[in-house]
User: Fold these one by one.
Assistant:
Number 1:
Amino acid sequence: MRLLIFIALKHLLARKRQSIVSLLGIILGVAFFLAIASLMRGSEKDFIKRLVDNSPHITISDEFRNPRRQPALLLYPHGAVEIRRVKPVTEIRGIRGYEQILKQIRPMNGVIASPMLAGQALVSFAGKDLGVTLNGMIPAEIRNVSTIEKYMIDGTIDDLLANPDGIVIGQELARKLALVKGENITVSSTAGQSRTFKILGIFRTGRANYDSGQAFVSLKRVQALLNRPNRINSIVVKLQDPYQARQVAADIESRIGYKSLSWQEASEDLMNTLIIRNTIMYTVVSAVLIVAAFGIYNVISTVVMEKLRDISILKSMGFYARDIRRIFLIQGILLGLVGTLIGLPLGSAIMSGMMQIRFKPPGATEIIQMPIDWGWLQFAIASAFAMTASILAALLPARKAAHVQPVDILRGGS
Amino acid sequence: MPVVLKTTQLTRRLEGEVPVTLVENADIEIRQGEFIVITGPSGSGKSSLLYLLGLLDVPTSGQIWLNGTETSSYSEDRLADIRLAELGFVFQFHFLLPEFTALENVMLPMRRLGKLSGAKIRKHAEELLDSLGLADQMHKLPRQLSGGQSQRVAIARALANDPLLILADEPTGNLDTASSANVQKILKDLARQGRTIAVVTHDTHFAKTADRVITIVDGKIAAP
Ligand SMILES: Nc1ncnc2c1ncn2[C@@H]1O[C@H](COP(=O)(O)OP(=O)(O)O)[C@@H](O)[C@H]1O
Ligand SMILES: [Mg+2]
């Protein structure tokens, strides 16, 4: 085998320029593949992390997936009697008996749950009115189910514990109404109630939409404002392992009946978009490597064509057909290997370079870094792809070389 | 002397739209130490015969006996093994591997055989080249050598594994008179040292020095 490698190496070194060009193809292919894949993977991870961090893992809402069945139907599922024109009782919207539900789901493994009541309201200050979503929550629990605490730039959510008439608003809203911490604002609901709150804190998530449209108040106050005493319209759940959300949500839903939406289900469209994006990305970067593989095919085919005499002499000397095939396969492997070994560091350099780039995406108020994922998986995929492409590219000419009949060539002479 | 190579009714045909018979019913016996010249008009089938004798080509019918065993049932790999260990080829064109020095070219069959250590292979190759007057050319690439020198390297390479039989196909066909005479002398010396050699040539002068001359006409052995 050493002899075969020696011969293969000689063949490549004798065609330095061609070998280097095809090598460059592989190097660039590997580097781009790696850099783009890492960027894509990084942004995907970043995106999912934001999704997982900033949204509840499971949201139990005051809805049913299927309309509620009539009591008569429940009682006599196979009955022949049909009651028509039944009008369901008008009831106050919301999850009924939520204390009971919480008692049921809180003991589940790795589950943290907290009730919320969200509703529309109008914030008035100095003659200006702005609509906000009022999130009624339990101040002592909110930090466990939401990341809002992380985004506080002034004051804390905990201040709501001491003062139940406090409110926490976003920075955009504060800016629009020229509000600062400590000021009082009037909040009125569509139910006709209105109340004055003291601004205890200001948050900034970086998403302008959220920062101008959301406010946090204690649950009891929102229930009063919206005229929905003892009601909530969602239970937000955080899990120790966010990736269990699907199963846990299904489990909860089967127990309590209310619609339980896992974050995966809630963002199914986005997830599908990610899959499509990944497919496109891998197709494009693979194309680079496939082009590079053609480069390898090209060199090795040329070598084979130029080396028909040498192949014949090696065969006449006693080399097996498979030895000849190996000599040319080794050339593909060598090109792939060296290309990968240089391409990976180059790709890493590109990745480091990209990490230096900082930019502000539209709609955001934060300057962010390119999210690069340094996981080994991209390195492995890039290497495996490059090696496979190189070997496949070498396979065809190598097989052709193995089938050369020395007699045909030797007879031909010079 | 024992028979090294023997053929019975050796025939090689090429199928095709116009079938060609390259070699027909050739009975040949080569004894150890013999120096045989194969001669005949151009296109008469001398090279084809030599390729059959050298197990490079497979006969359509007839047998080839090497050292008393019949070879038609041998696999391609087995034939390659025999070529490596028992046969040495010299062609009209030297066919040295252009990326390898003269020394490396001579070492190649020995390295492939793998019987000797690296150091011994090198020493033996150096001795062979030295004995053929190439002591100063060992580390040159084929393109830095003259035609005669290249052909001598090719002879050294053919001798590398100490073969039972050396087959040469017009080894002087492409050389000037002086180099030609030199190569002929080397082959005759080898024959005198006891090597078994079969050489195809047009040179009648050279043919006269042979132990035996086989004349081929239209693929058949002509009566002497
Ligand atoms: N592959 C082939 N197809 C057709 N004819 C061939 C082929 N190879 C050799 N021949 C013919 O067979 C004859 C014998 O060729 P060869 O053995 O090379 O003759 P020599 O070596 O005596 O000059 C020649 O006439 C040649 O043209
Ligand atoms: Mg010929």
Note: The interface with chain B takes residues 3, 7, 10-11, 13-14, 309-310, 312-321, 406-407, 410-411, 413-414 of chain A (CB under 8 Å).
Number 2:
Amino acid sequence: MVDFALTDEQELLRDTARSLFTKECPPALLRDAFYDVTPEGPAAARSFYATHLREWAALGDGPLVDLALFMQESGAVLAPGPLWVSSSWALPLLRAADHPDADAVADGSLTATVAVADAAGRWEPGDHDESWFVPHLEEVDRVVVVRSGPSIVVVDAAEVVGAPIEALDRTRPLHRIATASGPGTAITEVAFRDATDRATVALSAELVGVGRWLQDTTLSYVNERVQFAKPVGSFQGLQWKLVDASLHQERAAAAVAYAAMCVDADDADRASSVHVAKAAAGGAARHWSRTGLQAHGGIGYTWEHDLHLRLRRAYGGDHLLGDADWHRDQLAALLFD
Amino acid sequence: MKLSWGSEEEAFRSEIASFLDEHTPEQLREGRDWIGEEADEVPQWARDWQALLFDSGWMIPGYPPELGGRNATPLQTLVYQEELAARGVPRSVHFGGYGIVGPSLLEFGDETQRQLVPAAIRGDTVWCVGMSEPDAGSDLGSLATRADLDGDSFVVNGQKVWTSYAEWAEKCFLYVRTDPTAAKHKGISVLILDMDTPGVEIRPLRHITGNAEFAEVFLVDAVVPRSNLVGELNNGWRITMGSLAHERGGLWLEGVGYAQRALDGLVDLARDRGLDSDPVVRRTLGELYEEVRSIRALGYKGFASFAQGSSAPEHSYMKLAASELRQRLNEFGMDLQGAYATVTDPTLAAQGGRFQAAWQMSLAATIGGGTSEIQRNIVATRVLGLPRG
Ligand SMILES: Cc1cc2nc3c(=O)[nH]c(=O)nc-3n(C[C@H](O)[C@H](O)[C@H](O)COP(=O)(O)OP(=O)(O)OC[C@H]3O[C@@H](n4cnc5c(N)ncnc54)[C@H](O)[C@@H]3O)c2cc1C
């Protein structure tokens, strides 16, 4: 049976996360840190993980359903810091290798990022000299480099030689790094897939949070914004666009919850559900970005409004860990092969 | 019905083509449809370029030489705009003066005001256009900036927003309310405002791209001489409609030209990424090709009936179609780059990052100059004849 209702504990988790982010992660934090850079901004964003997120790091060891709930909330506010990559991706890889740093990453005293992709953006283990699209490099202590085998090599982030990749979303900085050589620890193919699935679903949940913020913000804007003596939300030409965006959003949210349950239960639907979740969540967040911007009119096209921050994260997130097209190709393969 | 460009048009085409090949400034050669401008003042090369076009009769070819033209026929003007658009070369980095203010002053201005037109078109005077306000966007008719007549002057109070080029501008074509008691569209007038008038304050606003290319303009007891009133008092709505028509008028060619350029770039991109035999990519590009060309054909059709003196309902579709198409073309250009889709580093992203940049800029195309929803309302009521909702 499928049950989408949250347990009391899950509801508490969501509510606690929501009030934490409402209180501690005001919009100004991101704006100051990454866009209208103020001297204190970057430091405040940088210490956000240590001050507010580290006690949540252990979610990476628990049910994916819980982690996904938390990621939705953090996605809605675009909480700074490496929680996503550290807990949902690096941690299961470290666990798979029985690595001595795993416990410290789980208790939040250490953070880690993951280097998998090659220059072509394939998220598969390999022996490429350079790893690309490594998130949050400058905010973490360790880099988990995935190599062929699969095996992992864990290196000190401080020792890594990397160059930033200038991209749309500054709040999730990406780097290319020279890939560490040296002896790795073997992990199983299954463990690698499991970590990728967890990271993919957690990222999808974040995208659902991004879409939810766009939906909530846009709906309240079109209720308040008056033109022609009516709220613009009363114009059907706009309503139908908003309805379509909300349909994408609702099915994405459901697909992500379903995928998290499938992974937790190691269900037969697991593989397809993860691809469905990522494709739907990336698509929905992108769709809401465009629709939300359009519904805001001029203000949506500026830095006066925070919508652009979500648009950046939506498009950036869609292209991490395989874009919607790639996941749809995998689904087609499941259909035919 | 027949398709042929006369030898006259062909000669005209090669003349403008060789002029552009020879004189286009380096800064515009890459195609300006994806490069924003951020500078404290209009760059000298841009001033020189606009002045050169004017002096050579290539600024607005349909106008006489003293207005930067060469008395070209409408068909020649079409050819001219096609050649510019095909190269992605703009005439100016600020559209208001030659695109809106010049034509509006010629139509509605008095003798003295018409003397401002050559400098507006040549770019010697930079103009901004102050229509939108915080509470008057799509509903422009509800604009509330007050201009109260006091002897021989107006005293202006209010606020404009999204005013492009306000920071550069010496003058503003300002839409104000001069009769607050009259019905909405009846109490509006247009004033020429000198931007250095005491009481005018500008706060730059950033586009999504990060460039500060428009601004808020605050007006506190700004005094404007009565002689700066354009047309009759309280009869400004007609000028407004004229201005919007000028803004929308020739833009379709630019829109189609930019779309064609983006499509050409997509074909190169697909080839470079080895996706030129991918059936999905081929089908999508085929579909986009169909759209670009059919929209162009629709534009030609509208142009032809317009040139023969009939109304051209086709034109109502053009901004809507071209702006939405441009967004999809550029977004597809990002998607074709896979993991590099959102990479903006010009050395890493395909073709110098043009798709990422052009996509961000294209997001304004469905808002500025009348949103897509407003365009659809116009088509619904004026073209399809549907009742107003
Ligand atoms: C890049 C850029 C440059 C600009 N430059 C200038 C300039 O130089 N000078 C100037 O005066 N203005 C300028 N503008 C402003 C532009 O004209 C307005 O943004 C535009 O008219 C929309 O108004 P708004 O932003 O207030 O949106 P709103 O009118 O508030 O619209 C909000 C949403 O409601 C929808 N909506 C409104 N009415 C209806 C309706 N009746 N039916 C269905 N949907 C509706 C809109 O489509 C939109 O989706 C510029 C805008 C941009 C983006």
Note: The longest helix of chain B spans residues 279-307.
